[in-house]
Amino acid sequence: MQLLDGKFASEKIKLEIAAEAADFLAQHGRKPHLIAILVGNDGGSETYVASKMKNCEKVGFQSSLIRYGVEVTEEELLLKVREINNDAGVDGLIVQLPLPKHIDPEKVTEAIDHRKDVDGFHPINLGRMVRNLPCFIPATPYGILLMLKAYGIDTAGKHCVVVGRSNIVGTPMSILMARNANPGNCTVTLTHSRTTNLKELVLQADIIIAAIGKKNFITADMVKPGAIIIDVGINRETSEKTKSGYKLYGDVDFENVAPLASWITPVPGGVGLMTIVGLLRNTLASAKKEIYS
Ligand code: GUN
Question: Is 117 a catalytic residue?
């Protein structure tokens, strides 16, 4: 078993991004700029957004955090999104999900200018991704592709089983792994909560991408020896043993599955760190007008 080390891969790519950001500053007299909007104070969202902002600063981007209380109206949020769309000094805008129930996430997602949608959630980016056209790829799927590339893993012709069909990970990941690209060119099976023969299908996988959001969902009896395992799960449980007061668990029973795997991502220290890199890469590409001119 070999580890797909998110710390190693992400630090290497962040050095490359920092060098490109320094060039951008020298050429344009400003830094690439990402704005994040955070509504409320969900513990997970607070942690993720803080990490996004911190990493922006690390690679030489400008980052701004706009906070709203849970009582903010949909209208107020949409007004802010439109204001940022028109600000030429901003390259990327993300609105952290989930949003409170009275705000329609689809409306907010579609209100973001697709040219600043560095989360890759807008239907224009999603449609362009399906067609294999230049677009912003959602940060977690993009991070997984960067991880596979960093370790030179050949995916062509392999059977990839994706577990979970979320808009953010499972669905885009299934499309990306099937595309005629590298990484890609897989035969893909997309499984979810209503799949009846899930274990049987996962057992056939050369590559398992677990994004179901359930601690230790993928067990050793579901894994073919030699499989490549990508664990997207970030399941938080309170713990008295850690400084932060919680402990993270993946969707894969790492202890028992790892001995069977050829490659496996740890949690923490795997996909989560690569997600940030995907977001940074998209923000830089937006600043450099590499996707949309
Ligand atoms: N919530 C969970 N993952 C994400 C993400 O990648 N982007 C945003 N905006 N919200 C999220």
Answer: no
Cα dist. 279→61, 71, 130 in Å?
A: 12, 28, 19
pTM of the model: 0.97
Q: Which residues line ligand 1 (CB under 6 A)?
A: 94-97, 119, 139-140, 168
Task: Residue 250: name the closest of 195, 208, 279 by CA.
Answer: 208
Q: Residues 150, 263: one domain?
A: yes
Q: How many domains does the chain have?
A: 2
pLDDT digits (tens, 9 = 90+) for 234-272: 999 999 999 889 999 999 999 999 999 999 999 999 999
Q: Is 58 a catalytic residue?
A: no
166 is in an annotated binding site: yes
What is the extent of the structural domain holding 37? 25-113
Ligand 1 atom at minimal distance to the Cα of residue 275 = 6
In a domain? residue 244: yes
